[in-house]
Amino acid sequence: MTDANCIFCKIIAGQIPSRKVYEDEHVFSFHDINPWAPVHFLIIPKLHIPSMAHLAPEHAGLMGHMMTLAPKLALQEGCNPYPDGGFRIVVNNGAEGGQEVHHLHMHVMGGPRPWLRG
Question: Is residue 115 predicted with pLDDT exceeding 70?
């Protein structure tokens, strides 16, 4: 299920270019076009889910996949390992939560401080 008007669905379909980090049958990951940190990429489901508020029990495996993929990709993209290194995961939900694109997405941000946004 996709949304023809969704910018992230268009990125997944290759209609809009991106700097791909990772792709499998369930998710697509790409660098943020306006990074807040030295490492900043997004992980998005290929299934169009508008927000965290739209998750259902059948999405538990997908969310688990995204969460367990984040540390692997963070290291791959240049984050230093735990415990001295690390990264931040941010999922904005709804207008008051700062969500700008209504396709569920996870920001993974890391790298040497002092990046203070987010």
Answer: no
